[in-house]
Amino acid sequence: MAIEQIRKQFPVLRQNIYVNTPVLGPFYDDLLDWRQERDLDFLLKASDMRGQTLATISETRTAVSEYFDCKRENVALVNNFSTGLNMLLEGVAKNRKVLLLANDYPSVDWPFMSRGFEILYAQIDENLEATIAHIIATEEVSILALSLVQWQTGLKIDLDFLVALKSRHPNLLIIADGTQFLGTTNFSFANSGIDVLGASAYKWLLAGYGSGFMMFKDGVQEQCDLKTIGFNAANAVPEKKNDIRFARRFEPGHLACINFGSLKFSLDFMSKIGKDTIEAQNQKLARKAKAAFTELGLLHAVAITRRPQSTIFNIKGDTALFETLTNNDVVCAQRGEGIRMGFHFYNSENDIDFICDLLKKHT
Fold first, then answer.
1. Which of 110, 180, 232, 351 has the smallest set of CB atoms within 10 Å of its CB?
2. Residue 39 and residue 212: Cα distance in Å, rounded?
3. Whole-model pTM?
């Protein structure tokens, strides 16, 4: 599917330069049609839709498993990453030492802080991976939790580093938030160094609010004594109360068919475009944006020197520059001390050129 055909699916692109996917991935025409059809089905059929609902949830679990290369039985469907992480930590012993990243997304840090874990922090800079490796080797850390892409700056962890780290420390539990990463590239959970990977799906996966998932490697359940339970986790069969698999303990109650069906629909949509095609387009956009913003002197040193590069950039800019951008229909966000932009496969190089022309005029 050509980029122009893809762009026609997204009404928001017709009037805006939309680089705010780090806040919310936009809906597109085919997804809206599907959601409206499902709502009409519920309106007309009511409880007769129960069987279809269960089928949709099952199909979504399969879609997540296949798209991200994770065993199907190790996929849990949750409303968002924050809920999934909090449920997970209720089953983790509190005497474990945890390494977090300074100024990471609060929903990664706060659940550990609120439960009284002993916490160490790694500073986010150009030497991040070396800092993590040193702390883990010297401080008897047993859990590493981090976002794969930082929400404010776009700094991306080296995934190969996590593979090597896990190889050196096989007992280290690596927990990652993939909300600002999954959907931007062709990624295999099975081949990663990550033990637990969760994500909310309303950003780069284009599924709307209320859908997310957690993925687990074999062996994680041996480190977590989960108490979460409910009728849905047992497939509404009382006799299965004591035979609930680990991932289903994250699904104690009924799940929303529209929300998770939207996730499956978007995974199918992105599969048709092609994961490699999406990755190639995003890398092309990231290279062009990085070069352009560097030339304009708008990137911080760590963003210039570090590799790999995500699709998120935080450029130097005050409220006046932000207003210039928004007044010219560039949809972006103020984060930290700058202005954050995120480019996804439906963006074009012309979008970057338009933004850079505005930045030049402002300066």
1. 110
2. 20
3. 0.96
